[in-house]
Amino acid sequence: MAEEVFGDGLQATRAYVELLATDGVVRGLIGPREVPRLWERHVLNSAAVADAVPQGARVVDVGSGAGLPGIPLGLARPDIALTLVEPMARRVEFLEEAVAALGPRPWRVLRGRAEERSVVTAVGPVDVVTARAVAPLPRLVGWCRGLLRPGTQLVALVGARAVEELPGMLPELERAGMRDIHPRAVGASLGDAATTVVVMTRGGR
User: Could you give all domains of the chain from N- to C-terminal order, each with its CATH number?
Assistant: First the structure.
C-alpha cells in the first residue's frame, strides 16, 4: 500500500518514519505508543490528503508539528511546492533536519504562526492551506486569514466530531468569507488509513 502511495518516494518515506520513531519520540513530537501505528495512523493518513490537492499546487502546512500532514503529502505528491509553518523552535529544528535528510525537494520550513504578517509575507501566494487537528475550524480560518487569499483552498484533516459539528459552524465560516464548505472522504484505497477532510475556499476576488 505504501509503495502504491509513495512510489519513488517510498525510500524517503521510510527514512521519515524512522526519524519519527526515534528523534520524534525523544523530542516529544510523537508519543511512544504511536510508534507501532506510525504508518497507518499518521503517515498514510496524512498522505490521503493528496486526493484533495490539485496538481502542481503551492501548499502551506500550518502548525506542522512533526511534519504531519505536510511531509507525507509532499512525499506522495512530488508535483507540489511545500512550505511547513511551525512556531515552536524544537519542532522547527526537527522539521529542518527531516527536510535536509530527505533530499533536495521544493520544500521549506518557516518558524512562526500563520497569523503573523512576517509569515504571510514569507509564504507568499498559495493554492492550498493544510492543517491536521490544529484547532476548531472557525479558529483555524481566523489564524489563516492572511494566507487564505481569494480562491485559496483550506483542506483540514479532522476527526469525526468536527464533521458532525460542521453544519453548526457553517454560518460562522461563511461570515469569515469561506465558500463551498464540505466534508470529503479521502484515501478510500488505504483501508483504515482512509480519513475525512473538510474543504473550503476563500471567496471574493
Answer: 2-202 (3.40.50.150)
